[in-house]
Design a protein that fits this description.
The protein is built from ten helices and ten strands. The chain has about 290 residues and is α/β, with parallel strands linked by helices. InterPro entries: Rhodanese-like_dom, Rhodanese-like_dom_sf, Thiosulphate_STrfase_CS, TST/MPST-like. It comes from Methylocapsa palsarum.
Length: about 290
């Protein structure tokens, strides 16, 4: 497998065929907001894909800020990923229990943001895998530490100052991946904010619109392109994605990647940051 070039997605068939590969590392990235009364690590302990270890985005995060699961430093990322048994050269496959929307897509993006592209997401995730009655296990996985190095790739990440500057320049199209209620300000967001609505001039493409509801896999490329076209997104221009806290926006970034837009950036702080800042404007439904 070491010479095989993978895209950003792998199928359940492919993963089952390669489960025994020595350089394959599978990460269960399931995460839930506390309001759900669910816990990704507990679900992992209950049942997980063979050989997988749990990747906690709240642990592999910047602990110096109160904002949720912000990117850590490159050194901290490398250290914590190494402790999960990942080494440079490994093929990483990430999955979760919500079609990429409960952090698998974010972990895919995190690796890329730290200069590592040999990472793919399991299309359809845990749900598709179990619906197909493929093997899972309960026994904990205690990997030997790996040797991983990371180098921050700022082109794939946007910070608050850059997002504010874009209000004037309009150089980057902003795609908000939240549901329509949160986008138009009629619903509260998951994280505490001082304002409701969305970043002015952004467009709304709920991340779930990119996923087939039956299989949990991404919709076909033609339909995927159609979703962006219908929202007025020009795939030949720069795009930055945003959401509530930088998770589901990564599903959208992955969708763009599948269409060949490999340079789409993610606003790491997303609405959890923008909605708290004193000097950020918010647009909402009339």
């Amino acid at each position: 497998m070491s010479d095989e070039i993978l895209d950003a997605l792998v199928s359940t068939d492919w993963l089952e065929e390669h489960l025994g590969d020595p350089d394959l590392k599978i990460l269960d990235c399931t995460w839930h907001h506390v309001s759900t009364n669910l816990d990704g690590r507990t679900q992992y302990r209950g049942r997980h894909l063979p050989g997988s270890v749990h990747f906690d985005i709240d642990h592999v995060a910047d602990k110096s800020t109160s904002l949720p699961h912000m990117l850590p430093s490159a050194a901290d990322f490398a250290k914590k990923v190494g402790l999960l048994g990942v080494s440079n050269g490994d093929q990483i496959v990430v999955y979760d229990r919500l079609c990429g929307g409960s952090a698998a897509a974010r972990v895919w993006w995190m690796f890329r943001a730290f200069g590592y592209d040999k990472v793919a997401m399991l299309d359809g995730g845990y749900g598709k895998w179990t619906k197909e009655k493929r093997v899972t296990e309960m026994s904990p996985v205690r990997p030997e530490p790996g040797a991983f190095t990371a180098e921050f790739k700022p082109s794939l990440v946007r910070a608050l100052a850059e997002m504010k500057a874009n209000l004037d320049s309009g150089l980057e199209q902003v795609v908000d991946s939240r549901g329509p209620g949160k986008f138009d300000g009629s619903q509260e967001d998951l994280f505490p904010t001082k304002k409701l609505g969305h970043i002015p001039n952004s467009v709304n493409i709920p991340w779930g619109d990119l996923i087939d509801p039956e299989s949990g896999a991404f919709i076909p490329a033609e339909a995927l392109a159609g979703r962006f076209h219908a929202a007025g997104v020009d795939l030949d221009r720069p795009v930055v994605t945003t959401c509530g806290s930088g998770i589901s926006s990564c599903v959208t970034a992955l969708g763009l990647y599948l269409l060949g837009h490999t340079t789409a950036a993610v606003y790491d702080g997303s609405w959890a940051e923008w909605g708290l800042a004193e000097d950020t404007p918010a647009a909402a439904a009339a």
